[in-house]
Each structure stands twice: as structure tokens, then as C-alpha cells.
Design a protein that fits this description.
CATH superfamily of the largest domain in chain B: Winged helix-like DNA-binding domain superfamily/Winged helix DNA-binding domain
Radius of gyration of chain A: 51 Å
Distance between the termini of chain A: 135 Å
Strand content of chain B: under 5%
CATH class of the largest domain in chain B: Mainly Alpha
Order of helices and strands of chain B: HHHHHHHH
Helix content of chain B: over 70%
Largest sheet of chain A: 16 strands, mixed
Order of helices and strands of chain A: EEHHHHHEEEEEEEEEEEEEEEEHEHEH
Shape of chain A: flat
Helix content of chain A: 25-40%
Number of helices of chain A: 8
Strand content of chain A: 25-35%
CATH architecture of the largest domain in chain A: Sandwich
Number of domains of chain A: 4
Number of domains of chain B: 2
Oligomer: heterodimer
Largest sheet of chain B: none
Number of helices of chain B: 8
CATH class of the largest domain in chain A: Mainly Beta
Structural class of chain A: alpha+beta
Number of strands of chain A: 20
Chain lengths: ~375, ~180
């Protein structure tokens, strides 16, 4: 069978898919060759009718939603509008944030209260006029946070068993601002404000359970454990490191590590210098229990300049060299010298031992060679 | 959020086609009304958080209608066969044609339960609403090619099934006879 419409000719029956395409696109495209074939072919027209019948719409004329649906939608719209909470987020967020902050602050406060135990510091070894919170010290007493002040020719020692001894010298004002044991960190923490004057402090070396710091008008000085002298005035603080290590943090922001045998002048900057031979004696620690410190009362000046200094202060001083009492600086350097010498001696001994061993080895090998030669000679004779 | 006036205007313009679509998918007038209402309610809720574009509203409503209808059918577990009395046909006054047509439609709807939901939706959009392929593609979120392929599949399936049961042939014969008489 063949058909001819507008020059298009399809001799064979088109496949069913093509007929479905024609059904689907019947109003979307013009007359195609397949369509022209369908017009002239009964079999294909029957197929076309069959597929078209499947796409003929039902009678939907009676189908329409009832008017109540529109009313229900309008009602739902109004309900949704009224359900919108005005500025919900803006009101709730700060309230919630405040509540959370308060809870956190409360928990931290309670936790800190529970975990920290105040410790009592003993005020003893006092002489002259010493005041704790403006009350004159008459006897040994225990303090927690207090201000301790000494007047001219007076001094006092603050101590906590197995932890520290701090001696306040003449005209010194020291405030204990922190003194507690933290259960959580298993740590003793002390903090002192040195307003004026001079303190001589001894703390255990590298004790992991003790933290302390001294605040002066110029800097904050803190450490793991050491022995030092600290003098402060409005203009400067002077730190004399006898032993151990300290960290100095100036209020200007500078940080330095103080090492033993050095003297540090702290203003806005930090100047480091060696401890002068008689500096400790010139500073005049009195009645300290530390063996390295010599006191003003039994001073014997080693140098002319030292003698002049004490004369200015109105103290009777004899220019006499004291051989037995070394200053801590001298002691430190002599000990280091001794240790260095000892190391050198040990090194020499080891070197000698090595030489001796190699000589013995050489001797043994030469003996072996001699023996071999002798044996060779004997065999030759035989 | 969209205004009440806009929602009502939208409802008035789309209510009928959406209703027919839903009804032809699920076969119950009351449920179709409920689903139609839920479609617009979803649109209202959606507009609270998102901006509504006028071009995509119709597609949104069709997709919502499809999803809600499919969910309903899944809950019910079957498709209702649309009763004859609910599907009055007025193709012409000839009672034989009308009867054949009713029977054909009933057979189609009973066979549609074996077709997947998307193909069923596409077929109903084409058959009942006579939407073009690109419109169907926009409403279903499929490509036009997919729509055509699915439609072909449904038509082939229905044609084969109805040919076996004889419904289609009866209808075509009756239609052909009457059509021939009228034109002849």
C-alpha cells in the first residue's frame, strides 16, 4: 500500500511507536508522512483510533470541588497567619543566651569555690616594728590575705611549711593577694604585691605543685622555684638571682628569663648584669636563716667602695677580707669551676685508660709475633 | 508570605484542573477535595519560609497534589475503580456509545493501578487535562523525553490489555459505526 500527500510517500506500514507519536503530537505538528499514511490505510487508522481513544478525555464537566473548599482554604490561611508568633526569634534568642550564660557562670563559680582551699601563712621571726593589716605584730600569727609592713631596722619572715620563706627587710610593704590550694590542679598558688622595699625569698626548686608570683610597680615576676632578692621602688625594681630561675614580665610587655648569678634592673625595660661581688652584703639582708647571706651587723667590707657605702649609711665597717664567707655569686662560680675541673680530670683519666688499653693490645700482639718467630726458628733447627 | 487575595485568586483559576487531576488519580470526590485543600495549605506554609514565584506555583501545586494523592493511595493500598454513575459520559446522545465509553474508562482506570505513580500522573494529565508534553514535564519535574517515553509505555500497556479484554475493540467499533452513520 502506498499513499501520497503533499509529496510524502510511505509505502510500508509505520511501526506502532510512530503511530503513538502521531497521537501524542497530533496538535503539535503539521501533517507528516506517517499521518498521511494513516489517512489512507485502514489497518493503521484502526491503530491510530485505538490509541486516540485511550487519550480521549473523560467527561469531566460535572467535576468541580464544592464551594466549601474555598472557604476552608481561606480559613486555613487566617489560622496560619494567626499562628505566626510575632518576632519570636528576636525575643527568645537573648533570653536563652542570658540563661545559658548564667548557668555556665553559676557552675564555674560553684566549681571554683569547691575546688580552692585558702591556706594560712605564718608570720614569725619578727623584730622591730612590723604591722599586719595596720596592727602591730606582737607574737607569731597566721594570716591568709593581708598586708605586711615593716619599718626602719625591722624585719619579718613569712613562711609556709615546706613551701617558702620570705623575709621582708626594712621599710617594706608586701601584700598577700593570693594564697590557696587548688584541689583540682593539686597545686599551691601564692601571689604577692611588693609595694616598696626589699624581700628575700626562698622557694623550693622546680616544685611542680607550687606556683607563685611577685608583682612590682614595674613587672610581674614568677617562677617554678628559686632563691632571690627583690627590691622595688617607684622608679625601678631590682632582682638579684641567687639560685634557680625566674620569669620576668614587665608591665610594658617585655619578658625575660632571669638566671642565677645575675642582677636585673627592671624599669620599662630589663637590664641584665652580673652580681657584683658584695652586692648581697650591700643590700643588707638581716637575720635570714640562709647561710649564703651575710648580715649588715657583722659586715666586713671587701672593697673600698663597699666601705664608703656603709659609711654613708652610718654603719661601722672594717675593711677586711673574709675568706671563709663567700657570697652566693662567688660560691656559684667556684662550684662551677670545681665541677668543670672534675669533668676535665675524669676526661683525662678516661683518655689515659684508653691509651693504656691500646698499649696493652699492642704489647700482646707483639708478644704473639715474637712467639711465632721463636717457633719458626725452632722448627728450622730441627 | 503570600496574601489571602492571591491564594483565593490562584485557587479560583486552578481549582478545577487540580480537582480533576486528583480525582482521576484517586477516584474519590471527598478525598479529592481534602487533598485539594491540603495542596493550598502546603503552599501557604511553604510561603512562610520561601519566596513564591508565580511561574512555579502551578508546578508546585501539581507536584503537591501528586505526592498527597500517592501517599493517600499507599495508605489505602489500592486505587478505587471509578463507579459508572460517577463518571457520566455525554459524548453524544447515543446510549450505545456512552455505555461503551463508560466501560472503556472503567477498564482503563482499573488497569492504571498496575502502572507506576509517575506514569499514571503523566497519563492523567494528558488524558483528562490535555496538557502538552512540555507542561506535563514542568509539572512533574521530568524531561519532555521522559514524559513521552512514559506515555508511550502506558499507552502500549493499556492498548495491549484492552485489546485482550475486548473493551477497546467494542468501543472503536461502536464509535466507528455511529460516526459512520452520522457522517454517511
Amino acid at each position: 500500500m502506498s499513499n501520497r500527500v503533499e509529496g510524502l510517500e510511505v509505502k510500508k506500514h509505520p511501526r506502532e511507536k510512530k503511530i503513538i507519536d502521531v497521537v501524542l503530537l497530533r496538535e503539535e505538528s503539521g501533517m507528516t508522512a506517517v499521518q498521511s499514511h494513516i489517512v489512507g490505510c485502514d489497518a493503521c487508522r484502526e491503530k491510530y483510533e485505538r490509541y486516540s481513544a485511550l487519550l480521549d478525555s473523560s467527561d469531566n464537566s460535572s467535576l468541580a470541588p464544592s464551594p466549601s473548599v474555598e472557604a476552608r482554604i481561606a480559613q486555613s490561611f487566617r489560622r496560619e497567619m494567626s499562628a505566626l508568633p510575632p518576632r519570636k526569634g528576636i525575643l527568645w534568642k537573648p533570653v536563652l543566651a542570658m540563661a545559658v550564660l548564667l548557668i555556665i557562670a553559676g557552675v564555674i563559680f560553684l566549681f571554683q569555690r569547691d575546688s580552692v582551699q585558702p591556706v594560712s601563712i605564718t608570720v614569725n621571726d619578727f623584730n622591730g616594728r612590723v604591722y599586719v593589716d595596720k596592727q602591730k605584730v606582737e607574737r607569731r600569727l597566721e594570716i591568709e590575705l593581708a598586708e605586711i609592713r615593716t619599718e626602719m631596722h625591722s624585719q619579718v619572715t613569712l613562711s609556709y611549711p615546706d613551701t617558702f620563706d620570705i623575709t621582708l627587710l626594712d621599710n617594706t610593704a608586701l601584700m598577700v593577694t593570693e594564697g590557696y590550694f587548688s584541689k583540682k590542679r593539686d597545686l599551691y598558688r601564692f601571689s604577692f604585691d611588693l609595694g616598696r622595699g626589699m624581700v628575700y625569698a626562698v622557694f623550693p626548686h622546680d616544685h611542680p605543685r607550687i606556683e607563685y608570683s611577685f608583682n612590682t610597680p614595674q613587672a610581674r615576676i614568677y617562677s617554678i622555684g628559686t632563691e632571690f632578692l627583690l627590691r622595688t621602688s617607684e622608679r625601678e625594681s631590682v632582682l638579684i638571682m641567687i639560685d634557680g630561675e625566674l620569669q620576668i614580665q614587665c608591665h610594658s610587655g617585655r619578658i625575660a628569663k632571669a638566671q642565677s648569678g645575675k642582677r636585673y634592673r627592671i624599669t620599662e625595660s630589663i637590664e641584665e648584669s652580673d652580681i657584683e661581688d658584695n652586692e648581697l652584703r650591700v643590700l643588707g639582708v638581716r637575720n635570714s636563716t640562709h647561710k649564703n647571706i651575710r648580715y649588715k651587723d657583722d659586715i666586713s667590707a671587701d672593697t673600698v667602695s663597699e666601705k664608703r657605702y656603709h659609711e654613708k649609711k652610718g654603719m661601722p665597717v672594717t675593711l677586711k677580707k673574709d675568706e671563709t664567707n663567700e657570697s652566693p655569686g662567688e660560691k656559684y662560680s667556684s662550684e662551677r669551676r670545681k665541677q668543670t675541673e672534675l669533668r676535665e680530670i675524669r676526661r683525662d683519666i678516661k683518655q689515659h685508660q684508653r691509651t693504656l688499653r691500646s698499649m696493652r693490645r699492642d704489647a700482646r700482639s707483639s708478644q704473639r709475633e715474637v712467639r711465632k718467630e721463636r717457633q719458626g726458628v725452632k722448627r728450622g733447627k730441627r | 508570605m503570600i496574601s489571602e487575595e492571591y491564594i483565593i485568586e490562584l485557587y479560583q483559576s486552578l481549582q478545577r484542573e487540580l480537582y480533576i487531576y486528583i480525582y482521576r488519580l484517586i477516584g474519590s470526590r471527598e478525598t479529592a477535595e481534602d487533598i485539594l485543600h491540603d495542596c493550598f495549605l502546603n503552599l501557604i506554609k511553604y510561603s512562610r519560609k520561601h519566596e513564591i514565584r508565580e511561574q512555579s506555583v502551578r508546578a508546585f501545586l501539581y507536584r503537591t497534589a501528586h505526592n498527597l494523592s500517592v501517599n493517600y493511595l499507599k495508605r489505602r493500598g489500592k486505587i478505587d475503580i471509578i463507579p459508572l454513575e460517577n463518571d457520566a459520559v455525554v459524548v453524544d446522545d447515543n446510549p450505545a456509545t456512552a455505555l461503551a465509553y463508560k466501560e472503556l474508562n472503567q477498564a482503563i482506570h482499573s488497569l492504571l493501578k498496575n502502572v507506576d505513580e509517575v506514569s499514571r500522573s503523566i497519563y492523567i494529565m494528558k488524558k483528562e487535562l490535555d496538557l502538552s508534553l512540555d507542561e506535563i514535564a514542568a509539572h512533574t519535574g521530568k524531561s519532555e523525553r521522559t514524559v513521552r517515553r512514559r506515555l508511550k509505555g502506558v499507552l502500549a500497556y493499556l492498548s495491549d490489555s484492552l485489546k485482550k479484554s475486548g473493551h477497546l475493540m467494542v468501543f472503536i467499533y461502536v464509535n466507528f459505526l455511529i460516526f459512520g452513520c452520522l457522517t454517511g
